[in-house]
Amino acid sequence: MPDKYKQRMARKKAHIDVRIEEANIDKGIIVLLTGNGKGKSSSALGMVCRALGHDMQIAIVKFLKGVQDTGEDAFLAQQPNVRTTCMKTGFTWDTQDREYDTQKACETWAVAEQYLKDASIDLVVIDELTYMINYKYLDEEKILNALKERPKKQHVVVTGRAASKALIEIADTVSILKDEKHAFRANIKAQKGIDI
Amino acid sequence: MPDKYKQRMARKKAHIDVRIEEANIDKGIIVLLTGNGKGKSSSALGMVCRALGHDMQIAIVKFLKGVQDTGEDAFLAQQPNVRTTCMKTGFTWDTQDREYDTQKACETWAVAEQYLKDASIDLVVIDELTYMINYKYLDEEKILNALKERPKKQHVVVTGRAASKALIEIADTVSILKDEKHAFRANIKAQKGIDI
């Protein structure tokens, strides 16, 4: 009797090997993590770690967040290859001031734009960017152009809920995180090492 | 004319503040990242960074992966607070040997089980666990029991496609990553700092 399992796996391997050989384009990509589920910024941070392991240069631009001191902040502050810029206004319901938020968003975007022109930076993370577009704090066209015209080898990771069609269009890899369940809804508070 | 924006945001803030106050349970949680989209293991790695920022103790158990040297491996090897165990067999189509895979899976799970009994470990990551259950390399009941009986403050992050109903049931936070788009399908190869 032939070993059917072995045969099936050998066929699968042959198919996958061909696909891997076909995928030979080498370029900077845009990864977009959107949807309401937990894990978008975490995922961006995980890619930062991979980049750190390759001794790459990383820039992180955070919109909205930054009122609270987090484990993430403490960790990033220790990494010589990472520069971080944070809007530090908290959420829109914290400031309750649209003009102030817009001004801060524009200032923060100006920094992101510099990173997106700098070929010495291998990975740019733009955290919670989608809200800035959806609230019209920032001009989407300007953002799309900056992304298009960035250095060819530079990777970008963008996070935030409800990404626009245009952002999905320009991205190379897009995951939509569905919020199937969240501990917060069971009255479990934000946990160190998980959420903060 | 009243400032409607400010009023709306103030109401939103009041609502959110109440919800944050209500969410006062403090306990170790299980986070499950499943679905076919990119970002599950990346997200687990991001939570590892948050935990590192809080000087927590971390254990990582990886099923399937480990044939290739990655930026992630290089990064983790530098972290004194992280211990890593890897099945190192690659994928099922690499070994093409069901018995060997099952044996390796059981050996790797035995290590995970020790971590899940050790209250000095604050965060246990079990990467690609779902496949081990779905391929019946490991007994699901045994896994569920080990998760249930772990130290009360210990967090666990589980990743892998097609998580079973029972895993979703036992987890506190579940995100299902939908694969909306992937660079690989556009023949872009796995990128350093993003995929490897």
TrEMBL record, chains A, B:
<comment type="function">
    <text>Required for both de novo synthesis of the corrin ring for the assimilation of exogenous corrinoids. Participates in the adenosylation of a variety of incomplete and complete corrinoids.</text>
</comment>
<keyword id="KW-0808">Transferase</keyword>
<dbReference type="InterPro" id="IPR003724">
    <property type="entry name" value="CblAdoTrfase_CobA"/>
</dbReference>
<keyword id="KW-0627">Porphyrin biosynthesis</keyword>
<keyword id="KW-0169">Cobalamin biosynthesis</keyword>
<comment type="similarity">
    <text>Belongs to the Cob(I)alamin adenosyltransferase family.</text>
</comment>
<keyword id="KW-0067">ATP-binding</keyword>
<dbReference type="GO" id="GO:0005737">
    <property type="term" value="C:cytoplasm"/>
</dbReference>
<dbReference type="GO" id="GO:0008817">
    <property type="term" value="F:corrinoid adenosyltransferase activity"/>
</dbReference>
<dbReference type="Pfam" id="PF02572">
    <property type="entry name" value="CobA_CobO_BtuR"/>
</dbReference>
<dbReference type="GO" id="GO:0009236">
    <property type="term" value="P:cobalamin biosynthetic process"/>
</dbReference>
<dbReference type="GO" id="GO:0005524">
    <property type="term" value="F:ATP binding"/>
</dbReference>
<protein>
    <recommendedName>
        <fullName>Corrinoid adenosyltransferase</fullName>
        <ecNumber>2.5.1.17</ecNumber>
    </recommendedName>
</protein>
<comment type="pathway">
    <text>Cofactor biosynthesis; adenosylcobalamin biosynthesis; adenosylcobalamin from cob(II)yrinate a,c-diamide: step 2/7.</text>
</comment>
<dbReference type="InterPro" id="IPR027417">
    <property type="entry name" value="P-loop_NTPase"/>
</dbReference>
<dbReference type="GO" id="GO:0006779">
    <property type="term" value="P:porphyrin-containing compound biosynthetic process"/>
</dbReference>
<keyword id="KW-0547">Nucleotide-binding</keyword>
<keyword id="KW-0963">Cytoplasm</keyword>
